[in-house]
## 1
Amino acid sequence: MHSNKYVFLYTLVLTTVVAVVLAFLATSLKPLHVKNEALSKKKDILSAVDAKFADADDDEIENTFSKVKQFVLDAEGNILKNKNSVGKEIQAEDLDMKKEEKKAEADRSYPLYVYNHNGQDLYIVSARGNGLWDKIWGSFALKDDFRTIAGVTFDHAGETPGLGAEIKDNTDFKKQFIGDKIYNDANGEYLVVKKGGQRDFNKDYEVDAISGATVTCDGVTDMIASGMTPYFAYFKKK
Amino acid sequence: MADTAVQEKNTAVKVSEPLFGKKERTLITDPLNDNNPVTVQVLGICSALAVTTLVVPSFVMAIAVVFVCAFANLTISLLRNSMPKQVRMIVQLVVIAFLVTVVELVLKAFSFTVYKQLSVFIGLIITNCIVMGRLEAFAMANKPWRSFLDGIGNGLGYGGILIIVAAIREVFGKGTFAGFKLIGPTPDYLIDTVSAGWGSTFFGWYANNGLMVLPAAALFVIGVMIWIQRSWNTKLVDVS
């Protein structure tokens, strides 16, 4: 048996060594983490327009993204031109949706990207909501009638692979959105994700859910319904 | 395990150990079959149920567990003589958590897509009972090199089962293998069960089984694997 003094010293030294090494590793890899995250954000937004961008290399993403027009909207759909602490105008790509979500709904800023695809403007809108385990988010590319979906992309913080994570990985699920309308002018409702049995296949406002991922799919429905308001306020003004 | 400890004591009279002797080889091969952590010791079932819906994440998970298990074994074996026995579990946990965090940070920096794919499961390695089980049962009583090999062996034994279960679940549940589309109801699958052609003629009756995607399926897949292993490896059957 070791003395109490030895035990205390041992644990103290061990935890200090571990903490120092981890802190060093985390700070030295931080630039790479930040770069990867920014790149993956741009990749997500561009893949809403065309799935081919999901496999594109880093330079192509940066190049294409530099041609995308960016706007920041407030909750009423007005374009914001706020400056950050260094006096640089805040761009849509600088917005941290995680932080925006914590603000009161009226104070949130929303990113809007406009991508020119063969002479036609595509409006890329983003939404964020709750999945089963953690947050889910997605971007929708809308044609210039502001209704027809040209492409979607989803992502998640911690949904189950093979079930909820399918909203991101399953191309068949995402393909269903293309050509559908995100907003139904007839009854004022947004697009919904429904389980197979309840779905009317002729409707443009319904998408078939993934089996085994009911909560995540309901999350997608809710996220669209709650996240689109500022964008539609903006579209109305255009 | 008991006679290993006795052997260790006898050979402690400075007999140099070979790098890859018979004993070292069995350390790697034993966990693959006779002493498999999943099918024989029934450890690590929780993560085996959770990650095995798709082959690719299971594969990366397997690599991560081999790494963590091997280096945790090595570190604990190096520390085993200086370690106060009162806090050995806590020391083991700190070492495991440290290695898992390293894996997470490195994956995030150098392989961001895999990092995003595995997301929550990397953290789950900390609670994987196999890692701690090996530290307690082997690394605390054996020399560093052998502990390292034991870690690799057990990581591989676990990872192998993971990949087999994932392959079965992905093929029968989703009709794909590692993302490659094998059998399903649209034309981009290799065997198209719906549109006219040989696929629908011979496989028109076939539908992917949604149950295989759910965690419960992993439980009976592993159950059937244990059954098959025992009927073929009679050593494992308890005769009492």
## 2
Amino acid sequence: MSIWSWSYTFEVFPIIFDALWITLAATITAYVLAMVLGLVLAILRRSAFKPLTWIVIGLSEFIRATPPLVQLFFVFYVLPFYGISLSPFVAGTLALGVHYSTYCAEIYRSGIDSVPRGQWEAATSLNFSSTQKWRKIILPQAIPPIIPMLGNYLISMFKDTPILSAITVVETLQAAKIAGSASFRYLEPFTIVGVLFLLLSYPSALLIKKLEVKLNRRSLGKKDKKLKEKGVAA
Amino acid sequence: MLAVRTEEFIGKNAVETANPLVAYKKVSKAFGEVKVIRDLDFNVSPGEKVAIIGPSGSGKTTLIRLLMTLEEPTSGVIEINGEPLWHKEVKGKLVKADEKHLHKMRGQIGMVFQQFNLFPHMTVLRNCTEAPVNVLGMSRKEAEERAKAMLAKVGLENKLDSYPAQLSGGQQQRVAIARALVMRPKVMLFDEPTSALDPELVGEVLDVIREIAEEGEMAMILVTHEMEFAKDVADRIVFTDGGKIVEQGDPKEIFENPKSERLQSFLKRMRS
Amino acid sequence: MINTYIEMVPALLNGAKITIEVLVLSLIFTYIIAFIAGLGKLSKFRAIRVVCTIYIEIFRGTSLLVQLFWIYFVLPFFGIEFSALTAGVIAMSLCYGAYASEVVRGAILSIPKGQTEAAIALNMTPFQRMMKIIIPQAFKIMLPGFGNLSIELMKGTSLVSLITLGDLTYQSLTLRNTNVAHTTEIFVALLVIYFIIALPLIVLARWLERRASLGRV
């Protein structure tokens, strides 16, 4: 195909590939923030102090219902008026991390809800403190089953980082756009970006699917064992 | 009564084995490595009621699923009225039939499932009219009349507008029977129709099947664990084990004078 | 301050019109594509399955903004030129259609095998089995997933501002350029308007979820 220029491809590839590190750094920073803040939201939501629960629910719903791109602009353009000036990278990862923390909170919640009531009661009966209860009893049981779902959000966030280009973060897409506008050739740069995203996200998705099957099998294994034990008892 | 039926059976058999309604010829079926049916020969005459008994895993359900075209035989030929079910003759050779041929052949067969398999999104009446309207091309009015008659026969004429989830298991299975009857098959297959039912609901379903059997014209192949019922309703009992027919014959003979050791031990286990 | 908001109204109304236009058109095409690709991936013909799988994995594996840029900036290279609105709707529909097709496929696969078998026993054709028996039951299972995807799609519409389509986000950015002092008011208003557009979708999605978890009758 003559329309595709290989020499131009080799020329722009290193530039775009270098920017991939920014994409990955943004993904991981935002993800860590989402995981931690998500857990905080999930725990606050169970607070006995009802107004706090309502505030958390309302805020989460609002954040989840509005576009991350607009939240990005909000953090980047509005916060400086209140003395908080952030670099594009920090503003971008903050917005993305906060947005996804509301999703992570839902996942944590499903994990926490699936821990049987008896576990809470047993922990109370052994006189664990509230922090100990969470750290030693509840979370170790709540988190392993939700790891695949949390992994899926990692991939989603990775695919959402190109919106950071809107506030001039030079991640992969922005690097391609700059290269493209300099040469008036967008075919190769944007295709390279697409291929890079596919090459990273598709295998990761397969990996997570595998992990999911494995975890399912483990929990099924447990059930089998239970049935066997019952059989022995009968 | 029984004597007359037996005579009928003998007479029919003598005339009609030459022209069986259903004929399995050296049929085998394997799932991967596991052979479920082995070189099986088996005939059913028009109007004949055959009960298939045997231990679980003996291939009896697979036997009728092959006839309903739910499973494809690994080898061998099944014929309905002398016409191959799974195959078509092209230039003197049998080749695998297409969906069109299967569609034509299926019109002669009906089936009642262990798990009822009613359509949960349709009312009882709709369950019984959907196929007549769409498959047989009947007008809705005609289909409804026919369906109502069949539902009356199974004692559910007052449940026309209920949804399956609102019915008991026994009622659901009776709807499933009516749904199959509306299509007027030449042979009706019953796959352990009472196995999924609570014990107190088994009777109502067996009564309905018995009534249909006594009407006569339609052939029936009944896979069942209800020995008394099989003895009562069937013209012939077939005992399968290990994918083969081990013994078959008159119900009285089979139950009172089993010849093979395997049938003897099976009956002993069923009685205990 | 109230004056500031009143001055913003015409531009934001214009933007809202475009946003809703993109939203509605994309929703329609998304679910059409979802059924085509979802059913295609279950086809008995290998070639159709392969084509659908490739489409789904490419559009789920790359990012919406990259797809949008590719369709808007790269396709003209091949002589295919779209208006920003058309490019936006195409990119959104193809991207969310890929996700929604997995909802369609999952729901169809979740219908018990006995339903197909009963339909075969009643001699329905493969087409009748799908249209009369499987899809009506699967559709109810798809709805909660569709509800949530619709919210995601609504949020995704804001990306069309980056290919200069004058939607809500684009209008707000323009407003801000001329009224930098009112940045806060503009973006607060923008977030609230998006929330108001999302509200009916959220209520619908939650209702569908609750109905699904109560079990189907």
## 3
Amino acid sequence: MPETLLEIRDLVLEATSYPPGEPPKTVTLVHGVSVSVEKGKVLGLIGESGAGKSTIGLSSMAYGRGGVRITGGQVLVNGRDILKIGPGGLRKLRGKEVTYVAQSAAASFNPAKPLMEQVIETTLISGQMTKTQAEARAVDLFRQLGLPNPETIGKRFPHQVSGGQLQRVMTAMALCPKPDLVVFDEPTTALDVTTQIDVLAAIKRAIRETGVAALYITHDLAVVAQVADDIMVLRHGKTVEYGSVQQVIEAPREDYTRALVSVRSIDHAEKPEAPPLLSIQNVTARYKGTNFDVLKNVSVELPPGQTLAIVGESGSGKSTLARVITGLLPATQGRITFAGRDLSPNLAGRSRDDLRELQMIYQMADVAMNPRQTVETIIGRPLEFYFGLRGAAKRQRVQELLDQIEMGRGFADRYPAELSGGQKQRVCIARALAAKPRLIICDEVTSALDPLVADGILKLLLNLQAEEGVAYLFITHDLATVRAIADRIAVMFKGQVQRYGSKSDVLTPPFDAYTDLLLSSVPEMKLGWLEQVLETRRMEAAGN
Amino acid sequence: MAHPIVKLVAQRLALGLLLLLAASVLIFVGTQILPGDVAQAILGQSATPETLANLREELGLNEPVVSRYFGWLFGVLQGDLGTALSNGQPIGPALGGRLANTLFLAGAAAVIAVPLAVLLGLVSVRYRNRWPDKAISAVTLATISVPEFLLGYIVIYFLAVQWRLLPSLATVYDGMTLGERLYAIGLPVIVLVLAVLGHMMRMTRAAILNVMQSSYVETAELKGLRPFTIIARHAFPNAIAPIVNVVMINLAYLVVGVVVVEVVFVYPGMGQYLVDHVSKRDVPVVQACGLVFAGVYIGLNLIADIVSILANPRLRHPK
């Protein structure tokens, strides 16, 4: 008979917000969710942002982040209701019986203390082990998690270790006091895919070898399919579907789950080659005051009305390329031609038409807009600046643009804070479109959005391309997005173009080593994918 | 290659020296050139043209300003602060004694005020928005809001006159034991502590509260640590830089700004010395005092900068 470790019954969570100038508002975040986890099992909590998955995860430690309160239900850990054990009881529970791995390990380690001190902190406080024993256990865990130099990495400070390694150290920190349950809160979301696969494998192995139970929280169904035994799909704080991983992935019962499983349904036919609108030849660039080139000899071309996807991991130079094209960072060498004319490397040397025809959309839509301007002012600004539109003519054009981005005309008087993430990004698209550009640089524009919302944005971008003939330089780390919209692809690695050509050429084997690593690291929505990839890699390594 | 910290610290030191040089120019210009004729100022309305000319010659006022400045600067660099006009004595030894007294008073106040302010800041954070926090805030705010001279007279009235616990005049002289000296300066120390406590405590509280928002404090909470452990072990070390900065500004104030308190308690420190000689128009003394004050101010801020650099783990442990 399996033992139930965590049992959450009819959990209700509320938060009170204090909007300025209005009476306080109490919102119910989670409406009566029930969860149970057996010893040694992994439950995946999945949903979009705001679904309540992290909030539920933290309630297993009776912790409410930012004013969230548990107002109903029971949370039983090892059979006792932790909502009734008081602050002293909770201190014994947290960090010992139940531990936590956060999304950003880089922010979750104290920057002023060496790693080892933080990893063994709770183990020492609870008096389970002596310092020597605890350190030996930590080193064992470091080794188990595949960290380099397990003996000495504990002496390092958080900033001296890479993001992927820190995430593993945090996992070691969670496992060190021999907990019964670990809450993993999006532990691989902030990592590059090639790093994610290693961390995921390390976490999975550690869970299996220590026999710990886990709550695994993520928005990525393909990731959770690799580690979970059961999956709970959440939406707006309610359970949508709860079942075994096999059932949820392979035979989802609910429409919403089916939409999540089959996301990225866009099918985009590649356009034929054509003379380029934008041509970048042998561009090299470096940041001021550094002595190393962030871009090395980059050459790519983009025909009008097509999409060139720039793919790569963080630090590969993709955003720097955007800065060079827009003139924010002048290239030290090379040439950029646009619509048959040479573009000045400096922003100051460019004509107003150069500026108008080359627009940009950013990852963080909310910081790319002035929070004190209405949607109409934001979209109207380029109309005024480039075309001198005023009054009724401007208002008319703003309305047309709102139609084009599939938002109601009533949005014109709203402020950015009153819009959802997807709506904000749509307004940014309208603002770029208002200038009648020939090229829009899209820098990770869907990365901060939930998959279904991101899908809508991509569809909109493709429709606009068909209507307006605008070209996109699409910077992303997400290969699924690339497959969905690109005509041409450039794979970047350490400031160089590793592989470049039409989409079909770039995505067809034989691959170079890096592209192969990148492509094979993208999680696929099927069971056993992780083992399969690792096995293939081991065979290849053995074969070499 | 040298540790990057060595370079940063060397830069700060060089910058400090440069600042001190600039301060010396300002002090010289301010005292020598702005008031017009120094000789006239010294001799007053009744001076005859001959005595004025003689005095100018004696003071070297007929020489160009630049050469006078360098003459003074080189003297200072060799340890010669010049001669007081009012009594013809060398300034160095007199000023040294006064400076020692001021540093003793400021030091005694700092030894009490700094740990107390940091501790009260920690307690405020621990009980934020509850009564201990509010009480600490209210009391410290009240004491900085009262002017120092009034605070001085209030403590004299209660502690010296009514309850006769401490002497109202902070008289010190050679040959006193340390205990006697500390007893003598009891009242001015209390006034100075009350004057600087509020600022340091509030900044400590703000700096730590700022750090309390970070994810690693949440990590510590989810580790089940005690609230005070979280504040002292995880928040405080990351708030050292801003705290040290405000502590140093207040220490500098203790040295430079004690003039009023010294006058109230008739304490023979730098402040009294400066005020006396300003009224006697003894320009060389005023210059010397200005330079010492500037040196203390720049020096303490330099220490704050260096401590901030040393407190940053990214600089202390480069990749």
## 4
Amino acid sequence: MTIPTLIKAAGFLAILAFPALGFSDYILHIAILILLWGFIYTGWSVMGRFGLVSLGHGAFMGIGAYVVTMLWNHAGITPWIGIPIAVVVSMAVGFMIGFPCFRFRITGHYFALVTLALSEVARLLIVALRDHTGGSLGVTPNSVISADNPTSFIAMQFSDKVIWFYIVVAVWIAGLIVWRAVDRSMIRYAMEAVSQEEDAAASLGVHVTRTKLIVTMISAGMTAVGGAVYGQYQLYINPETTSGIAISLQIVFAAIAGGMFVQLGPTVGAVITLLLTETLRQTVGHDVHGLDVMIYGAMLVLFIIYMPRGVLGRVIEVFDRRAGGPSGPTAQPKPQPGE
Amino acid sequence: MGEMLQVRGLTKKFGGFTAVSEVAFDLDEGEILGLIGPNGSGKSTTFNLIAGALTPTAGTVTLEGRDITGLAPTNVCHKGVARTYQIPRPFRKLTILENVALSAYFGADGSISREEAWKRAEDALDLTQLPVDAQSRVDGLGAAGLKKLELARALATQPRLLLADESLGGLDEKEMGQAADMLSHIRERRGITIIWVEHIMGVLMRVVDRCIVLDHGEIIAAGLPTDVAHDPKVVEVYLGTDAESVQSQVAGRVAGASETVGA
């Protein structure tokens, strides 16, 4: 076994053993949120790392949370079926927003602006359909659990946080696997090429629109899963916490801060944002409304200027340089023969 | 004539401006055709119309008997036409080998294995005399190296028709000679048909089989390099100066002066 494999195995065991260490429910709650948001940020970075900066992932998260809850509350459809439906809906929305953008070559800032609009459209839609969605007051999935009956598999409602912890670990690892699969596939090369020189990539046979749509739909689908699990775990969703600009920006900030070019970067981003939010909540409280979002904004600017590869990306960069072994995209260029 | 490519009545208008007007020519398999003309003569537009980067206002482009008029660049590539860019457009975040390997893979529309793509990339790098190792990065390449990378990527898609756009631009005298010889060498080794666009005639005339001269979007001369270089209309377009050097190049070719060939 190589050292990285050993570290991975040890980390994995440590995570699995985490609930057994007797932490309080609050700590367990924070751990669940870190892994869940880590998954959502990982989903964002599947497309974000290739320059497809979406400011609209709140929409996909909202779709995940609301489709599943609406199907359960109004049609009695179990979340186990609701989640795949939400994923399909989310992917369809990703396609609808992506296809015209990619077909007509709306890239960079313009793409970001289109997606920003999407995230607001989703939030406003949830508010406007208040008869069904509960509007801005939010909605609770019809509860079937009680003190006597704390667990309902069919409703995906569990009062035990340990169960949620393991569900979220599974979801998070699945997210890392998807990220890795994309990273190791030829799609990565196609997207690297497209994000750097779109015309050249097209003239060399890369299906530009198709490839962008694939990563967009993977990303949208993952984010919908995240939104759905979030709703089931919190048993309360509202337009502000699952959709809209604030959530969308939080997703972008966390992924960039953690490092969207490395597998665990978005998870590190989740740790940063969660600790920041919790610290602010406990020190400043709710007196200064929107303070966390303001700090996100300021830090986002600082990160983009001074640490564009994010915290984890930067750490790996420094370690690589220390080790003197240039590898991966951070390596320094060397003079070439053959010129 | 024209078993590889037939261009008929090719016209491109940008608003009221006609960039290319009724251009027609044929190309046989294995030929090297020089497409020359001064700046703004419409040669790059013609090039882009064939490559699919622009859609013609009128006219047809037929490749090996199949109509490829107006196809998107990706589809034109899959039909067996590869292009280079005048200003190199490398994928800078990828290594040289990855640049070429992804071209091989997607040029074949994903129908080959990764191993095969990397093998084709190594072949293409070998042919263009670029480093074949896995670490070499684009940043280490100079102007000539980047031109070679353009060529290597195009070749990796295994085209039957290669469109080379101003492969000499930004190169010094010696590099120009080497670039010209390389295109000639590629044709010999791979049997690839080549359309070579250039605004200077110079060294190109030594290598091409035939030449088409464009001016103001129209063909003003076509034929063997020797004939074209002495055509009064071509001489006028090039204001004499360049035409003289062209004539000397052609004379050198006729005299069999091939000291740089194979260098």
